[in-house]
Write a structure and sequence with these properties.
- This protein has 27 helices and 35 strands.
- The protein has 965 residues and is of the alpha+beta class.
- The protein folds into seven domains: 2-46; 62-218, no CATH class; 220-351, no CATH class; 354-383 and 725-891, no CATH class; 384-565, no CATH class; 566-693, no CATH class; 909-959.
- Strands 3, 4, 26, 27, 28, 29 and 30 form a seven-stranded mixed β-sheet that branches. It has a five-stranded antiparallel β-sheet with strand order 6-7-10-11-12, covered by helices on one side. Strands 19, 20, 21, 24 and 25 form a five-stranded antiparallel β-sheet that branches.
- Strand 28 (755-764) and strand 29 (772-777) form a beta hairpin.
- Helix 6 (148-156) crosses helix 19 (666-674) and helix 8 (220-247) runs antiparallel to helix 9.
- The protein is flat, with a radius of gyration of 37 Å.
- The termini are far apart.
- The model is unreliable at 1-23, 891-907 and 961-965 (pLDDT under 50).
């Protein structure tokens, strides 16, 4: 009965019952945790898949899927080949060390302490072996996958047909082969060291190596095994010594006489080179001694050999070159180094495309006293651009923004367009791009569905301003109209378009607004990625961290997502082997807005060519304030560069096209071989596109930086440093950054007519006077395209440089007083680009002066500074300033624009009266500007208002139909 009484509570919920019920929630928790774990793993897997899938969809949408597949295939191949190779050799050596373990005999204290570790890992030996091998394999594979560019260049490399002067090997060996050999060597060193460490630890754990035990420190098997690994390491060191010989041709060093230096110097050719050869031989012998340990079973000879190699490396590789430098080179450095400097000069000039730069002596002062002729020659010398694209963006914004959700870039661009009479004129151009910060109400639908694109081109004459100091627009209003004719005006891809849009679905987009209200549109192109597929929507919801993409009703049949929308971003993505110029610029080509992007091929392996840092040499006062103008460099340190590709991005469809520009560039040929079909031939460039291609700024900035030293052809002069120049700081900017180069049409002394050019100035090192003026023919259709011309000023006399000219402008009493008046009230004075124009042996400086103030939030051209031959003028217009400087009135100066000439007579009395009023208003405005005590801005503003009213009355009267008699 006691037993029964004891058992009955068990069935009825006694001590056993609760334990059974307690186990049930435990299983539920385990199930829940397991489910959550599986979901977490699936979530991470889908996140990784989403990134991969969206990348594939994007590349397919821009028709560059081959770039994605070739790059991915290369990375996967390198990952598995080198990952498996590393895992195999490390795993093999661990297994071999375990296999060669000695039989355990009498246990020493050291072995007793290790025994518990052996016992602990005994059940998991296979798993531990696989884990260690897998870990090192993953790390090695990931490192190798990052070398996909090196592999593709090695396997597809084409010859340069240029040989280095020391070893007489083709440049392609240094540019394409040597980097890959160095990677293989680095991989071999890593594998040898990891195998050595893994084998030594295994031997120690299983008694093959002893540290404190009496007797032999290593078993015969361990000695043989480790000596082979050490022999492999030393053999690799021998290979490294041999490759180091060729590496001297591309080695960078600090050379006191020249600064940054690449290539062999006297001490390299006569000390380091033979030293590397001797060390190679010693390392080979040392490696053989280590391998011989397999038979001799003694460390004595290998250790002696290794010690000899280390000692030789110190004496032959370090001390001997130092002695040669100290006692042979330094006492007669110029004579010793001159032959090697000459090689560096030649190679550097070839690698940067400056070997054909034409240096001409220039007087620096006028050769004639005929003032009227000089004044007349100004119009032929240059189309002087008084509209500074880096100043007038706020003016474009104020006058042509039209709606708050449009905007212009901080820096506008300069291009050239036909005036209709067969002549081209420099034009300041910008696109009215989408500005989401100006959208009336920011929300997900507005930002990504309704406000999706900008609208229209705005362009103005570069060489003129109207009577109010505003740009003379050649293309304006909304929709834009003017000289550019008809073209697709919608801008879905632009410099300011840095977010995604979803278009083409049920949600209509805001097209533009006019007096009749908002107009809507739907995207008609096939750009972007379709969101019809639920998988695509889920992938983009994860990739953009926006779940609404998955379930929003605004997305339906036909919806497409547009992203990666800036021109430089798109070109960089489809050609990840190119370096992208910092300044993409728009042009109307074949009735479409095209972004034109210059792209470069670069190398860091051109023998004897000095290296430059792209980020530093392309920096100037504009990049300091606008990061969007910075170069997008695949490798920052380069010693070879070519503008080998011209790319276009359609502002409406986003289509990217790459055109081969430099047909001789072996680096581009290599990449075209690696990615066949991605770059179109040069012959595919249409004449309309060719008319808007230009010489790129970043390449010009790199070349001008190199030409501060490499404009000399003589090694002795180069070594003395007496002819070193520098790029001056921007005189109109206090940031201390270099002056940017400027585009303008000008005629150099050896040219018969103006050419669209890119120009800059040089000053002597540490001084402010002018030492040289440099231009390059920037017009792609010209036979002289890319020709660099340098006017070298005499050293016997001084010619004012940009900073000195600016200082004289600011310090001249009359000008300083006038500027002070311009700054009256809350006005601000802004100096435009200081342009330099060669004229009859002298240099003409022109600088527009803008005023922002008086309630206006945008700059207006108010004055023009001009100096020539020591005479300076500060007048209301360029023509007036030139007249004053030369003391003669120009007959070739074009008449000023709107409101500056007497209106023609009219037969309509109403029109005639309005024109008379307009003339009076114009005269009153000019009077207000020229008052002795300084400009009367209120009177001037009233006169301008009266002028506009009168012209409006004249226009309205003229447009009314005449009554029949």
């Amino acid at each position: 009965m006691r037993t029964l009484a004891f058992q009955m509570p068990d069935r009825g919920g006694g001590p056993t019952g609760p334990r059974i019920r307690a186990g049930s929630p435990s299983r539920r928790v385990r199930t829940l945790l397991t489910t959550l774990g599986v979901l977490a793993v699936l979530g991470m897997a889908f996140t990784m898949f989403a990134g991969f899938w969206t990348d594939w969809l994007w590349y397919r949408s821009v028709h560059y899927s081959s770039v994605f597949t070739i790059t991915l295939r290369t990375k996967i191949g390198l990952f598995f080949v080198f990952g498996l190779l590393m895992a195999f050799v490390v795993g093999l050596n661990i297994w071999l060390a375990h296999r060669l373990r000695p039989p355990l005999s009498a246990m020493s204290m050291e072995q007793q302490s290790l025994d518990r570790y052996r016992m602990g890992i005994a059940p998991y030996k296979k798993w531990l072996l696989l884990s260690v091998s897998a870990l090192v394999g993953l790390i090695a594979g990931a490192s190798a996958a990052g070398q996909w560019r090196t592999w593709l260049m090695w396997v597809n490399g084409v010859p340069f047909h240029e040989k280095d002067p020391q070893f007489h090997l083709d440049v392609s060996f240094y540019a394409f082969d040597l980097p890959w050999y160095r990677f293989l060597l680095g991989f071999g060193f890593a594998a040898a060291i990891l195998c050595l460490i893994a084998a030594a630890l295994t031997h120690y754990l299983y008694g093959g190596l002893r540290v404190t035990s009496p007797g032999a420190r290593a078993s015969a098997a361990a000695t043989g095994h480790l000596s082979v690994l050490l022999g492999v390491f030393v053999a690799l060191k021998a290979v490294a010594y041999w490759l180091d010989r060729y590496g001297l041709a591309v080695k960078s060093s600090d050379f006191k006489a020249t600064g940054n230096w690449t290539g062999l110097r006297y001490v390299d050719a006569n000390a380091y080179l033979p030293a590397k050869t001797i060390l190679f031989c010693i390392a080979v012998i040392c490696a053989l001694l280590f391998f011989a340990t397999l038979w001799r079973r003694t460390w004595q000879l290998p250790v002696i050999g290794f010690g000899l190699m280390v000692l030789s490396a110190i004496l032959i590789g370090g001390l001997y070159p130092a002695i040669v430098q100290k006692f042979q080179v330094q006492p007669n450095e110029q004579a010793k180094e001159a032959p090697y400097v000459q090689k560096n000069l030649k190679a550097t000039r070839e690698a940067y495309g400056i070997d054909d730069a034409k240096v001409t002596e220039y007087a620096g002062k006028s050769m004639t006293s005929d003032k009227e002729k000089l004044r007349a020659d100004v119009g032929d010398a240059a189309g002087i651009r008084i509209m500074d694209p880096n100043i007038v963006s706020p003016t474009f914004q104020q006058l042509q923004q039209m709606r708050n959700y449009y905007g212009f870039p901080t820096n506008l661009d300069v291009d050239r367009y036909s005036t209709g009479n067969g002549k081209d004129q420099d034009t300041v151009i910008g696109l009215r791009e989408l500005n989401l910060s100006g959208v009336p109400k920011n929300n997900w639908i507005n930002d990504h569905f309704r406000y999706t694109h900008g609208y229209g081109v705005v362009a103005a004459k570069g060489t003129a301003a109207d009577a109010n100091g505003e740009p003379v627009f050649t293309e304006s209003d909304l929709p834009s109209k003017g000289d550019l004719g008809t073209y697709q005006q919608r801008i879905y891809y632009g410099e300011k378009t840095n977010t995604y849009s979803i278009v083409g679905g049920p949600q209509k987009e805001i097209d533009y607004s006019d007096d009749k209200g908002e107009k809507t549109t739907s995207y008609q192109a096939k750009s972007g990625v379709s969101l019809d597929n639920p998988l695509n929507r889920a992938a983009y919801a994860v990739a953009f961290n926006e779940p609404q993409i998955l379930y929003s009703g605004a997305i339906g049949k036909g919806s497409r997502i547009l992203y990666n929308r800036t021109p430089k971003e798109r070109v960089e993505a489809v050609a990840p082997w190119l370096t992208i110029d910092g300044d993409a610029y728009p042009a109307v080509v074949n009735h479409r807005i095209q972004w034109i992007v210059d792209a470069y091929t670069t190398s860091n392996g051109y023998p004897y060519s000095s290296r430059t840092t792209l980020g530093d040499t392309t920096a100037d006062s504009l990049t300091a304030t606008n990061n969007n103008r910075a170069v997008v460099a695949q490798q920052n340190q380069v010693n070879y560069i070519r503008n080998s590709v011209k790319a276009t991005v359609d502002a409406y469809t986003g289509d990217v096209k790459l055109y081969q520009w430099d047909t001789e560039d072996p680096v581009l040929k290599t990449w075209m071989k690696a990615f066949p079909g991605t770059v179109k031939p040069r012959s595919a460039i249409s004449p309309d596109l060719l008319a808007h291609l230009r010489y790129p700024q970043d390449l010009f900035k790199v070349q001008r930086e190199l030409l501060t030293r490499y404009h000399v052809a003589d090694a002795q002069t180069f070594l003395t440093g007496s002819e070193v120049w520098q790029v001056p700081d921007d005189p109109t900017n206090r940031s201390g950054n270099a002056v940017p180069p400027y585009y303008l049409s000008l005629k150099m002394p050896d040219q018969t007519k103006q050419a669209f050019s890119l120009s800059t100035t040089f000053t002597p090192n540490g001084r402010y006077n002018l030492s040289a003026f440099m231009t390059v023919d920037a017009e792609a259709g010209s036979s002289d395209y890319g020709k660099i011309r340098i006017l070298k000023l005499p050293t016997s006399t001084t010619v004012d440089g940009p900073k000195q000219v600016q200082s004289k402008f600011n310090s001249e009493q009359d000008i300083a007083a006038a500027i002070k008046l311009l700054k009256g009230g809350d006005s601000e004075v802004e100096y435009g680009n200081l342009l330099t124009v060669p004229l009859d042996g002298g240099l003409l400086y022109v600088e527009p002066v803008y005023v922002r103030g008086g309630g206006l939030k945008y700059p207006l051209l108010r004055k023009v500074l001009v100096t020539y031959g020591g005479k300076t003028a500060f007048e209301n217009t360029l023509g007036e300033a030139l007249d004053k400087v030369f003391g003669a009135k120009g007959s070739t100066t074009p008449p000023p624009d709107t409101g500056t000439t007497r209106p023609p007579a009219s037969g309509n009395p109403t029109v005639q009266q309005a024109l008379n009023d307009a003339q009076k208003a114009f005269d009153a405005g000019q009077e207000a500007l020229q008052k002795p005590g300084g400009p009367d801005w209120s009177a001037y503003a009233k006169a301008q208002k009266d002028l506009k009213d009168a012209l409006k009355r004249a226009q309205d009267a003229e447009s009314k139909p005449k009554k029949s008699s």
